[in-house]
Design goal:
The complex is a heterodimer. Chain A is built from 11 helices and 23 strands. Chain A is of the alpha/beta class. In chain A, the strands form 4 sheets. In chain A, strands 4, 5, 8, 10, 11, 13, 15, 16, 18, 20 and 22 form an 11-stranded mixed sheet that branches. Chain B has a domain of 171 residues: P-loop containing nucleotide triphosphate hydrolases (Rossmann fold). Helix content of chain B is 34%, strand content 29%. Chain B has 9 helices and 12 strands. In chain B, the strands form 3 sheets. Chain B has a 6-stranded mixed sheet with strand order 6-9-10-3-11-12, with helices on both faces. Chain B has a 4-stranded antiparallel sheet with strand order 2-1-4-5, covered by helices on one side. In chain B, strand 11 and strand 12 form a beta hairpin. Chain B starts with a strand and ends in a 9-residue tail after the last helix. Classes of the chains: A alpha/beta, B alpha/beta.
Chain lengths: 469, 255
């Protein structure tokens, strides 16, 4: 491990690390065609992908920032100083002593295994998880499931990969899907054969390093007819990163009768811009469910969506957002009905603490030629302090006869009498607030796999502790 | 003798004086009843003892085992052994009754010590059986969707589980029909004993048929105007509160 302390200037307030690294696999800062060539060459990618990436780059350049509807924070992104590709082993590091105490305490409170802490804290560049997940790996292989990194997948299984890659989220969908299409690296590829019900929730278990936990992940999951799979992304622990822009793309394809559940817990550092495009395509009688929890980052913009392409298909988005001081969680859902008798359900709960801001944007589209479609949306916001903020922007367009839609929204504060009641039973004000907040999101948290729901509750407690007063 | 002593208490809310020099004392092992017409300040007394932030204590003191509790936060008073059964118990959506009680018990343990889950459930079920509360109840959110009677029974359940030294029951009988009242009274009577001092605040004498007090105090216009034994309650029942207005004497102290 090289000693880099003399070339690292640490400014804790901004969270930016400046370093000089003589890296052989570093594309440098800024984005040009040369960066793309570099990525393709270093990764040994096929020529079709070089063309794909370059044309995506042009789309990216041609699109303006969507500041006409998005928050002003976007303007702060300086595309010229971002590193768009950094291979494994060269990510900036720090010593364990340099890791801030509050980060260490969070690991303690969340019960993060010792072996993972150093990786998460940026002390080690990678975490060799093969040993930990070897049982899952074997079980998955036994069922005939293909599970590998996206780079390996496009090389080894172009038949499957190219069939759906870029079809659910076209390059030009938005500026950031274009960016991802140009410089993506890392992310998962999963193919589940027909009828296979994957018993274990899948998580990226292959070598976890800077690249795979990276800025521009590209994930593609294909569930063939009648299959079922659950995928988990992210973790509750704060993840050290020097990269301030994270722009992932996740495409899901659920073929006839298939079910996909995609679970995300996001807790990026408070200086990160997290702009993600996630969409699923649901064929006849298929189901896609997004369970999304956003706790970290400076700005997250993410609207998981489902295109209900097949008759009787179902889309669902369950979303929890926690916005503290200096944070803006701009989340929501997109439900596009494109067949008869399709159903969609969105439940969103947000908590704004201090000067935090939570925004809900929900798009529901049912065109007039469809029949028997149903949509239901519920969005509830909780404001903890007088300076906390929440906004709701529903965009619901339902036409035709025999379709129905329902939208309910609420904004509330923690009731002082409730807090007094809990205090009278012996709970401190902070404990009472935590309990009230956990109660508010309880029915959604319980939909996460158990390991996550336990960590989530602890994380919410931690966030609340800071806010009381 | 372990007791709560209220000395010449004066309490206002938004510049309006509600309690005007109230003195009262009750000890472990005793059941005292406080009765009075509407507006006499009974509920205010309960809330002030619990430490409700809306009220300002402008004079006097409240001592628990000789120590003033006026500077203590509500939760500290609770952990010191004071329990209040609310007149209007709050709903806490998303928090189950079991988890709520666990959190309350856990808060009383020293830092680092974990509540034993098996012991907790054993204790909880024991008390639930006493109060004829069904098992499913533990998973329901605190007071959410409960009828008035169920909420009051839940207060007594919490009282039973938390085992305080002093309990103030604020109009526990209001909104209850006879059957619910009997169950609640049975619960209180089982808890009653040398280890706990109980202050029953009530408007109607009826409750006192089931929970027979050792002492009765009458409150009017912010102070105690009369004290006596359990017969005093019966006298009020037949003569009404107006009788006291005619008979207004000095504010009365303990016993």
């Amino acid at each position: 491990m090289s000693t880099q302390s003399d070339s690292i200037a640490i400014d804790r307030d901004i969270g930016n690390f400046f370093y000089n690294v003589a890296a052989t696999r570093d594309a440098g800062v800024g984005l040009t065609e040369k960066t793309i060539d570099y990525i393709v060459d270093v990764k040994g990618e096929p020529e079709w992908l070089r063309e794909f990436r370059k044309s995506a780059y042009n789309v990216f350049k041609s699109k303006p920032l969507p500041t006409h509807w998005a928050g002003d924070e976007l303007k702060e992104i300086d595309f010229d100083v971002i590193r768009y590709y950094l291979a494994s082993g060269e990510a900036a590091k720090r010593t364990w002593e340099e890791v801030p105490e509050d980060i260490k305490r969070t690991f303690e409170r969340l019960g993060i295994p010792e072996s993972e802490r150093k990786f998460l804290a940026g002390v080690e560049a990678q975490f060799d998880s093969e040993a930990v997940y070897s049982n899952i790996k074997k079980a998955v292989a036994d069922q005939g499931v293909i599970f590998m990194g996206s780079t390996d997948a496009l090389k080894e299984r172009p038949d499957l990969f190219r069939k759906w890659f870029g079809k659910v989220i076209p390059t030009g969908d938005n500026k950031f899907s274009a960016l991802n299409s140009a410089v993506f690296s890392g992310g998962s590829f999963i193919y589940v054969p027909p009828g296979v019900k994957v018993r274990h929730p899948l998580q990226a278990y292959f070598r976890i390093n800077a690249e795979n936990f990276g800025q521009f992940e590209r994930t593609l999951i294909i569930a063939d007819e009648g299959s079922e799979v659950m995928y988990m992304e992210g973790c509750t622990a704060p993840k050290f990163t020097t990269a301030t822009l994270h722009s992932a793309v996740v495409e899901l394809v659920a073929l006839r009768g298939a079910k996909i559940q995609y679970i995300t817990v996001q807790n990026w550092a408070p200086n990160v811009f997290n702009l993600v495009t996630k969409r699923g395509l649901a064929m006849e009688e298929a189901e896609i469910k997004w369970i999304d929890c956003n706790i970290g980052s400076r700005l997250t913009m993410k609207y998981p969506g489902v295109v209900l392409k097949g008759r009787k298909s179902r889309g669902e988005v369950i979303s929890i957002a926690l916005a503290g001081d200096g944070q803006h969680q701009d989340t929501g859902a997109k439900m596009v009905h494109a067949a008869d008798e399709t159903t969609s359900n969105v439940v969103s709960k947000s908590i704004s603490i201090g000067k935090g801001r939570a925004t809900y944007r929900g798009l529901v589209h049912v065109p007039k030629h469809l029949k028997g479609c149903k949509n239901n949306t519920e969005c509830d916001a909780l404001l903890i302090n007088a300076s906390s903020r929440t906004d709701t922007y529903p965009a619901i367009t339902v036409r035709g006869t025999g379709n129905s839609t329902q939208h309910e929204a609420s904004v509330s504060q923690i009731n002082a009498e409730q807090i007094f009641y809990m205090q009278q039973r012996g709970l401190s004000e902070g404990q009472a607030m935590s309990l009230a907040v956990n109660g508010f999101v309880n029915d959604l948290v319980s939909q996460f796999p158990m390991e996550y729901s336990v960590e989530l509750k602890r994380l919410i407690d931690l966030e609340m502790e800071g806010s009381v007063g | 003798m372990s007791s709560i002593v209220i000395q010449e208490l004066r309490v206002s809310i938004a510049d309006k004086e509600i309690i005007r020099g109230l003195s009262l004392e009750f000890s472990k092992g005793e059941v005292h009843a406080v009765m009075g017409p509407n507006g006499s300040g009974k509920s205010t007394l309960a809330k002030v003892m619990a430490g409700h932030p809306d009220y300002q204590v402008t004079g006097g003191d409240i001592l628990m085992d000789g120590v003033s509790i006026l500077e203590m936060e509500p939760d500290e008073r609770s952990r010191q052994g004071l329990f209040m059964a609310f007149q209007y118990p709050m709903e806490i959506p998303g928090v189950s009754n079991a988890n709520f009680l666990r959190a309350a018990l856990q808060a009383r343990l020293p830092e680092g010590e974990e509540l034993d889950a098996t012991e907790f459930y054993y204790r909880l079920y024991e008390k639930m059986d006493l109060l004829e509360i069904r098992r499913e109840f533990t998973a329901r959110s605190v007071n959410e969707g409960f009828s008035g009677g169920e909420k009051k029974r839940n207060e007594i359940l919490q009282l039973a589980v938390l085992e305080p030294t002093f309990a103030v029951l604020d109009e526990t009988d209001s909104g209850l029909d006879i059957d619910a009242l009997k169950v609640v009274a049975k619960g209180v009577n089982t808890i009653r004993g040398p280890g706990i001092g109980i202050l029953l605040i009530t408007h109607y004498q009826r409750l006192l048929n089931y929970i027979v007090p050792d002492f009765v105090h009458v409150m009017s216009e912010g102070r105690i105007v009369r004290s006596g034994g359990k017969e005093l309650a019966l006298e009020l029942e037949s003569r009404g509160y107006d009788w006291l207005k005619a008979d207004k004497g000095e504010p009365v102290g303990a016993k």
